[in-house]
């Protein structure tokens, strides 16, 4: 089982670097003559392709198996980033990052969480936490390296180096992944065992992830609006990202001891409590703690929902079921920039910031309605 987890960690460490695109996006867009909005639009396309690719992982596992699927993702990611690094036309960014790397990242993430779902129930939470934490670690590593390396080497050389690293990590993940494409993954058209649970988990994911996504979308201006100076606001953004990574690691491990439902309840409660700390005006220390806690709660939800899905539908039905549940993250992510813009335009009044807690209400109600997983699904 350690082999499955390591395969997922390597693949997600590679795929998560997609979320570091903003570190070079403005410079890359200018270099190829693309309009300024393309810097963020390319990433938006990549996220859409990511979600579609994740929905197709179920069929890919049935037809190809995890090893070949990750091998294909390695080729697509390396080629996509390579095209972006060498192309002289805006289409190189759209095709290389938006389409090829977006698809490779979605496939890598889908296969990784599917591998974690095959870990026996007593350690499934910790396994899922490690795998999804690797996805968050990728942009954290890039965030530490890029400000120092990109000015020295240029974005093209750095992108070429990233292409090599991402291809190598995905290839290593593929080598460790199982090769079989058997009934262990279930028939390609099989439906999730518990449709009601899938719907409820969709609501939990959408509502539980929304506050964190909203804060991620407008972290710097939100911190400035709470009275933090530029340096302290930068620390708040770092704490948000660090909390996200820590939440994924800790929540999965803790859920193996207390259960996913109780761990999810705690994550939603923490998210609700800490929105108040962002409503201000309060002491800078409270604001910084609220940023860290919001990231922690978001990371916990991101780790616990896939584990809870596997508990309720079983490993065979998991890829198809989680592909559907994950669309909740996409919906919340699409709404995040809109909500963030409204907060900024409204002067970041306390009553507007408190709106961030509203999605937690349906998430809490859905969690209450979620019945315990059947014993056979936790096998």
TrEMBL record:
Keyword vocabulary terms for this entry: Membrane, Transmembrane, Transmembrane helix
Source organism: Geodermatophilus tzadiensis
Compartments, as annotated in UniProt: Cell membrane
Protein's membrane topology: Multi-pass membrane protein
Molecular function, one GO term: transmembrane transporter activity
Main subcellular localisation: membrane
Alphabetized PANTHER family for the sequence: MONOCARBOXYLATE TRANSPORTER
Protein's UniProt keywords contain Membrane: yes
Keyword Transmembrane helix tagged: yes
Family annotation (Pfam families): MFS_1
Any single Gene Ontology cellular-component annotation: plasma membrane
Record lineage: Bacteria, Bacillati, Actinomycetota, Actinomycetes, Geodermatophilales
Protein name, per record: MFS transporter
Residues of the Major facilitator superfamily (MFS) profile domain: 196-379
Transmembrane segments: 36-57, 69-85, 91-115, 127-147, 153-177, 198-219, 231-250, 262-280, 286-305, 326-346, 352-370
InterPro entries, sorted: MFS, MFS_dom, MFS_trans_sf, Proton-linked_MCT
PROSITE patterns given in the database record: MFS (PS50850)
């Amino acid at each position: 089982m350690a082999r499955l987890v390591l395969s997922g960690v390597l693949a997600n460490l590679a795929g998560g670097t997609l979320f570091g695109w903003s570190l070079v996006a403005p410079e890359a867009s200018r270099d190829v003559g693309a309009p300024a909005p393309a810097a963020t639009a390319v990433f938006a396309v990549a996220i859409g392709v990511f979600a579609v690719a994740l929905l197709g992982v179920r069929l890919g596992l049935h037809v190809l198996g995890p090893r070949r699927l990750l091998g294909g993702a390695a080729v697509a990611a390396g080629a996509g980033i390579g095209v972006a690094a060498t192309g002289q036309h805006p289409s190189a960014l759209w095709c290389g990052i938006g389409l090829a790397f977006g698809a490779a990242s979605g496939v890598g993430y889908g296969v990784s969480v599917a591998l974690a779902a095959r870990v026996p129930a007593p350690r499934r939470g910790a396994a899922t936490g490690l795998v999804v934490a690797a996805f968050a670690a990728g942009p954290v590593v890039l965030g530490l390296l890029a400000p120092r390396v990109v000015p020295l080497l240029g974005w093209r050389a750095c992108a070429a180096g990233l292409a090599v690293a991402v291809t190598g990590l995905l290839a290593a993940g593929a080598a460790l992944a199982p090769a079989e494409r058997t009934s262990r993954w279930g028939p390609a058209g099989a439906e999730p065992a518990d449709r009601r649970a899938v719907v409820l988990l969709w609501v939990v994911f959408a509502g539980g992830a929304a506050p964190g996504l909203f804060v991620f979308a407008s972290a710097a201006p939100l911190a400035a609006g709470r009275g933090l100076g530029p340096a302290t606001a930068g620390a708040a953004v770092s704490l948000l990202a660090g909390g996200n990574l820590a939440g994924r690691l800790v929540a999965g491990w803790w859920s193996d001891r207390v259960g996913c439902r109780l761990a999810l309840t705690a994550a939603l409660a923490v998210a609700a409590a800490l929105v108040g700390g962002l409503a201000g005006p309060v002491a800078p220390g409270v604001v910084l703690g609220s940023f860290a806690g919001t990231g922690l709660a978001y990371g916990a939800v991101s780790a616990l929902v896939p584990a809870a899905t596997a508990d309720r539908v079983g490993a065979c039905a998991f890829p198809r079921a989680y592909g559907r549940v994950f669309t909740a993250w996409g919906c919340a992510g699409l709404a995040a920039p809109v909500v963030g813009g409204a907060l900024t335009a409204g002067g970041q009044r306390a009553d507007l910031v408190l709106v961030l807690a509203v999605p937690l209400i349906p998430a809490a109600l859905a969690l209450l309605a979620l019945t315990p997983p059947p014993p056979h699904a936790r096998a």
